[in-house]
Write a structure and sequence with these properties.
Helix content is 21%, strand content 38%. By secondary structure, it is of the alpha+beta class. Strand 16 and strand 17 (316-317) form a beta hairpin. The protein is globular, with a radius of gyration of 27 Å.
């Protein structure tokens, strides 16, 4: 009996090993198939622009015996860059390619090559710098293969993925890994957070930008965009824009030549545990606290008030600030979003009709909406007709100690006139609180100067 059990156990063990080996063989074949078939829609993008610089002749500098002014000479230099992309749509003889905005932004010429054989001149259809997506197109009668588009809402951490692109100009390089995490916020606080990134350990290097991140079925589920690296090369931390977000932008660029982001007109704050406790929300573990609602904004018309805690918008539970900014920013003007709100201990439902974002953020996070230069001073700002308005002042911050109040309008910093938040960021870029910076402020009907 014992011998029979041992024989059965041995056979099962052997079968298990055989099954494992068979699975590995199947995976190997699958990867080869993806690399072979799904590399064809991937393109190599090379760009150039002419940069003009003024320089002085060194001989004139040393041998200018007349003591006159030196005459600068304008010289032109070619600046080139590399990137990746993939065929997304076809309309007649036109093929539309998705890539990153930073691959083609400001470039004079854009060229696309396939399989290192044929090169095409491309034109830029449109771009969105906030999401870092661009669409370019080529015109040809050649029959080219479109990429298979997946659904990034279905991906999970630890899913197998492949990246295809042109790192350092090595065309159609394939790397393999897993999804390390999903829902990563943008590391760039100077831009509206319209993207929750996919993090992957599949090797991504300079030149991969704009190329596809594929699932094990060979479908594009992300656009490889950036890496975290101190050396400039891959250290196993790469980020991709989810394809559902990229598709939304690309479709708008192809259809109307521009992209539009939703806007609801609130300033909000992601609460930590201590802040929730101060507000008597000890058991509340998620939600966004509304700090201010802009008058006549979509949120104001829907009945949202400062002090409301937003729990859910659309189908998205609001655990992180990016959950709100991505949902609103991805919505189109005119879309209706249902919102669950905690107000005075009761959960109520509202419906917001999304507005169109112009120069304002679709939704502003008071933690980072104004950028690092403004955060250091401790106030949150918004653009107004007559200058920049102080929207909120952090307690015990340099701004609070200087006497700033909500509603103050900043019109000038030192000698620089202020028309928008960008002017403030530029004015404060090289100064710190305590340096003796003069702020010219309008408050109600009074004008005053505050120093910090």
């Amino acid at each position: 009996m014992t011998n029979k059990k041992s024989i059965i156990a041995t056979l099962c063990l052997m079968c298990g090993i055989l099954f494992a080996d068979e699975s590995i063989v199947n995976l190997q074949e699958k990867l080869r198939e993806i690399a072979d078939k799904e590399s064809k829609p991937v393109v190599f993008i090379s760009t150039e622009k002419i940069v003009k610089q003024q320089s002085y002749d060194p001989f004139e500098f040393f041998f200018n015996n007349r003591g006159g002014k030196l005459t600068p000479k304008e010289r032109e230099f070619k600046q080139s860059a590399l990137g990746s992309g993939f065929f997304y749509q076809q309309k007649g003889d036109e093929y539309f390619i998705i890539t990153n905005n930073h691959v083609v932004d400001g470039m004079d010429t854009v060229k696309v090559s396939i399989d290192d054989q044929k090169e095409y001149n491309a034109t830029i259809v449109g771009s969105d710098s906030d999401v870092d997506i661009a669409v370019i197109k080529i015109k040809t009668k050649d029959k080219l293969q479109l990429a298979k588009i997946g659904d990034s809402s279905k991906i999970k951490t630890a899913d197998l993925v492949m990246a295809i692109g042109n790192p350092y100009g090595l065309s159609h390089s394939v790397t393999f890994g897993i999804i390390s995490a999903i829902g990563r916020p943008s590391p760039d606080n100077s831009k509206p957070g319209y993207t929750n990134f996919i993090q992957t350990d599949a090797a991504i290097n300079p030149g991969n930008s704009g190329g596809p991140l594929l699932n094990i079925s060979g479908e594009v589920i992300g656009i490889n965009t950036m890496i975290y690296s101190q050396s400039g090369g891959s250290v196993g931390i790469g980020f991709a824009i989810p394809i559902n977000i990229a598709k939304n932008i690309a479709d708008q660029l192809i259809t109307i030549g521009k992209s539009e982001h939703g806007w609801i007109g609130i300033t909000f704050r992601e609460l930590n545990e201590d802040e929730a406790e101060k507000l008597g929300l000890k058991q509340q573990q998620f939600g966004m606290l509304v700090m201010q609602v802009e008058k006549d904004s979509p949120a104001d018309k829907a009945g949202i008030k400062s002090g409301d805690l937003l729990l859910k918008i659309g189908k998205q539970k609001l655990s992180r600030s990016s959950d709100l900014t991505v949902t609103v920013g991805s919505a189109k003007p005119g879309d209706k979003l249902s919102v669950s709100i905690l107000r005075s201990g009761k959960t109520i439902e509202k419906t917001i009709t999304v507005g169109k974002r112009s120069s304002k953020s679709a939704v502003e996070n008071s933690d980072n909406a104004s950028g690092e230069e403004i955060e250091r001073f401790g106030f949150v700002l918004s653009d107004e007709k007559d200058g920049v308005s102080v929207r909120a002042v952090e307690v015990n911050s340099p701004a609070a100690r200087a006497g700033f109040k909500n509603g103050d309008i900043i019109t000038k910093i030192n000698s620089k006139k202020i028309k928008n938040i960008k002017d403030v960021q530029n004015a404060l870029k090289d100064v710190n609180p305590g340096d003796g910076t003069y702020f010219f402020v309008n408050r109600s009907e009074d004008s005053l100067i505050l120093m910090m």
